[in-house]
Design brief:
Layout (H helix, E strand, L loop, with lengths): L15 H11 L5 E2 L7 E2 L1
Antiparallel strand pairs: 1-2
Length: 43
């Protein structure tokens, strides 16, 4: 049933700036705001 579908994972945070810092600087992930949905970060 889900063999060929893309997966999505999300987490709710209270502080978007702290989340950006954590994902970018601690985990080394590329993060960027989603222009169509303010408050959403994408990779």
């Amino acid at each position: 049933m889900l063999r060929h579908s893309a997966a999505f994972s999300g987490y709710s945070v209270n502080d978007i700036e702290a989340a950006v810092w954590f994902y970018r600087d601690v985990l080394g992930l590329e993060v960027r705001p989603d222009d169509d949905m303010p408050g959403i970060l994408t990779r």
